[in-house]
Amino acid sequence: MQGILADGLERKFGPVTAVDHLSLEVERGEVLGLLGPNGAGKTTTVRMLACLISPTGGSANVCGFEITREPSKVRDMVGILTENPCLYERLTAYENMQFFAEAYGVSPREERKGRIRELLEFFGLWNRRADKVAYFSKGMKQKLAIARALVHKPPALLLDEPTAGLDPESAKEVRDMITQLSCGEKRAILLCTHRLEDAEKLCSRMMIVNKGRCIASGTPELLQRKLVGAPVLEVVLKFGSTDTADAVRRLASVRSLEADGPRLVMVVDEPDSATPEIVDSIVRAGGRILSVNSLRPSMEEIYLRLIEEAGL
């Protein structure tokens, strides 16, 4: 079964273009992170893929079904968590789950009951199943909304800020669950988030959008390369030495080197293969190494720089 594929997706609201010819692909077993500031078009993209609103241009397929021609089949294939999940607050947690399980056609009755219990227990809500949702905390409501999105075991998940409002322990539980759903159960997951920690830990690929346009996409490593070029290594020595610096400069894998006392900072071609060679040359030259570090920008630095450079 296919995952999620969008080609030139567009959505306009009057004169405003919220999503501007956006193309993306999420394979089964993969988490694609959709990152961007408020108003970037992330939520609008999710709503189109979930058939909650129609595109004004382009096309998209979810698990083999086209979103404009087969919206009811797409909805059966998708579990969605919106940024502001709507729950029936006058109903209990169990009643909310039962309502949506029935709406999604989860049957027979015993299977439905088992699935509801499984999810409520996983999210630590089973003991509160008889309480009305109106009395739940924001974090508890978020957990229930995620459980609701999973009740029919959808092969594709559209998650908009899934860890919002959760304490660190609960956020980790949700991240672990997402990893299991993607890697273990081979679901296609599109994750919209402002939490770069979530993106770094969960996403095999990322797409950064601004004002409805894709400004960069790829693995975290490719985005790092786009920002800083070749990898940078830092070697800290016990004592600085001209001999050790000269020995490293002579290596073919080292493009350039700056020596600041006992600290050597160098641009290299392939750090995995270059590092052993660099370490060996330093030791042969009489240097004593205290540490070797790969200097890579954080995901936050990459994100902010790319948004700034886009200038949209």
Question: Concise description?
Answer:
This protein has helices at residues 42-49, 71-77, 93-103, 109-122, 138-150, 168-184, 196-202, 220-228, 242-249, 271-284, 299-310, and strands at residues 4-13, 16-26, 31-35, 57-62, 65-66, 78-81, 156-160, 188-192, 205-210, 213-218, 232-237, 254-260, 263-268, 289-295. The protein is of the alpha/beta class and 312 residues long.
Helix content: 25-40%
Fraction of residues in β-strands: 25-35%
Average pLDDT value?
89
Overall shape: it is elongated
Structural class: alpha/beta
Low-confidence stretches: none
The name of the CATH architecture of the largest domain is 3-Layer(aba) Sandwich
CATH superfamily name of the largest domain? P-loop containing nucleotide triphosphate hydrolases
Can you describe this structure?
It is a single chain. The strands form three sheets. The chain has a six-stranded mixed sheet with strand order 6-7-8-3-9-10, sandwiched between helices. Strands 2-1-4-5 form a four-stranded antiparallel sheet, with helices on one face. The mean pLDDT is 89. Strand 9 and strand 10 form a beta hairpin. The relative contact order is 0.13. It has two domains: 4-224, Rossmann fold, CATH 3.40.50.300; 232-295, Alpha-Beta Plaits, CATH 3.30.70.100. The two termini are 37 Å apart. The chain has helices at 42-49, 71-77, 93-103, 109-122, 138-150, 168-184, 196-202, 220-228, 242-249, 271-284, 299-310, and strands at residues 4-13, 16-26, 31-35, 57-62, 65-66, 78-81, 156-160, 188-192, 205-210, 213-218, 232-237, 254-260, 263-268, 289-295. By secondary structure, the protein is of the alpha/beta class. The protein has eleven helices and 14 strands. Helix 3 packs across helix 4. Helix content is 38%, strand content 28%.
